Amino acid sequence: MISARNHFHGIVKEILKGAVNGIVKLETPGGNRVSSTISMEAIEDLKLAEGKKACIFVKATEVMLANDNLKISARNQWKGTVKEIKDGAVNAIVKLEIEEGVTITSTISLEAVKDLGLTVGAKAVAIVKSTSVMLGEE
């Protein structure tokens, strides 16, 4: 169990190693690519290697939403369809299906939901910086 609302599975496709950090590139069963920037120590502790299965975790507060893909430095951008919106007092929880059976949850302001025109059935893009993607062993 983990408090991060977003968790799904992937296969390690590539590892770019640096002196302190590395970038681990994964692919989900539906073909979505995920990049995670984590320490070399974590890569070694998890024994990550090409072809290995891994779990992907992202806190909902780290998921931004947009109407279309953006040319920005955030590596992870997944197109999907809004499946659910739960309004709170100032924030909303928006669930975006990015592939069949895989949803990513975002906690954003009610103002952002309104500004983006998000409704159930609308198309949107979830955006996550690679430094906000945690990995775990499957």
Automatic annotation (TrEMBL):
GO BP field: molybdate ion transport
Native source species: Oribacterium sinus
One protein family per Pfam: TOBE
Domain of life, source organism: Bacteria
Keyword Transport on entry: no
Name listed for the protein in its UniProt record: TOBE domain-containing protein
Sequence ranges assigned to domain Mop in this UniProt record: 1-67, 71-137
Cited SUPFAM superfamilies: MOP-like
Keyword list, A-Z: Molybdenum
